[in-house]
Structure formats: structure tokens, C-alpha cells
Amino acid sequence: MKGILLLSHGDMAKGMLQSSSIFFGENLPQVQALGYQMTDDSEAFEEMIGKAIAELDSGDGVLVLTDLFAGTPAHKTTRYLKPGQVDVICGVNLPLFLELLGLREAGDLELSTLMQTGKDGIRLWEVAQPQSDDDFF
Fold it and tell me: What is the pTM of this model?
């Protein structure tokens, strides 16, 4: 199973992991979340990333999800990149993360599909007429 490492500025990554428990339960295997805080040493954070990748990789690799393209968490993954083994997607959102968890269980991980899911998850909420919950399920 591919490991998943969530990285963010602040506690966003930890919040996404906690939110995913509503859909997938607690204690997800091979998933960790790290948040870079303003007071953190960036070199120490980079070492934490390396340690987490090593812990999460059971032989199938690790997918790292970061909050911002070119932000510190993304930059600190650079030395660990190994295409196909350790890949990084920047701009994570909850729809992308939830899709990844579902696809990972099915064993079907296509990075372009995940990224499209993240893009498609950004929508303007418009209600043309009153709706009930039954209309959505």
C-alpha cells in the first residue's frame, strides 16, 4: 500500500487527517500529517519529512500532498523526490485527499485523476431552487 504524507503550513494537514476519519475511520494505516509552524527550523522540518517518508514506505512508495506550490513544506520535499516512488502533489484539498484514500484501498492510483478531482472539488455553491438532502443522495 502506498504511504501518504500530508504537509502544510500550520495545522491544516492535521485537520485534513482528522476530517478524513469521518469517512474512513480513525488510525488510517500509512498516513501521517506534519505542519510547519512559524517557529520551526526549516532544516529540522526537512529531516522530519525524510523520517516520515521512511516510516510510511512499505515498498510501494509514498505520495506527499502539500498545501502550496513553492511553499516551504513543498520545497523541503525536493531531496526526497523519486518519480514513481516518492511523488509530490501541491495544492491539496479535502476532495483530493478523500479520493486518494478511496483509490488507495482499491489499488488504483493515477496522479492525473487525483489532481483533476482536486480541481473539480472547487465549485461555486449555487442553489437555484430549495433543495433537500434527499436531492443530493
Answer: 0.90
